[in-house]
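seq:
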Amino acid sequence: MIVENKYRIKLSDINMENKATNKAILSYLEDVGGKHSDFAGYGIMDIPQTHLSWILIEWKLQVIRRPNYAENIKVTTWSKDAVKCYAYRDFKVYDEQGNIIILAASKWVLVDTIKGKIVRIENDILEKYKPELDVSAFDKEVDDFPKMHEPTEYQYETEYKVRKADIDVNNHMHNLNYVDLANEALPEDVYKKAQLNNLRITYKKEIKLGETVKCKYSFVDGKHFVVVKSQDDKSIHALIELSE
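struct:
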């Protein structure tokens, strides 16, 4: 089952070049993915009955062409297979001429909201999503999530105190706001000038209201890395990789 939504790029979605930001793009993907879960009976509004909530643990985004302000786009998504505790969802974004302009993949776990534990994704749940087992956004040789590692050294770091506005329905920092953390840590020239069209995020540990985190930046092998760590440096909350 392939689900789609259409969007018009809004003023609040664009950068200084009048093009959609990575955060805005991910928000469209998240929205259409939520629509699919609503259809399947495992959306946000179903949590009081199912006691199950989807938690995102990986994003992979490739922007082929960044849409402009006021441009109309179509976002499609589908559920792929589930392996033990992990479920996979892919996305394609099209412009008005039908050209593919964005590809994305994501990895999820299902959490029992009463026990607070990850549960195995049973076939009866997966079948509600009518998965497209043979359809992938990316070529099969890159259709995976290779493990990201923390850099051995950093060139810059900044601290961020989590605000009320950062918190989502799961009572932790919303996954899209990690893009803001990455932007805060990027050098000014990179943030303003670089076309960071490739993005990966691995979520490791949730961030709660009132916590202060460190956003640590490193440039390694042509890629920009931001690692979000606890204030005492003992825990990694997320690993973020950006490149042109």
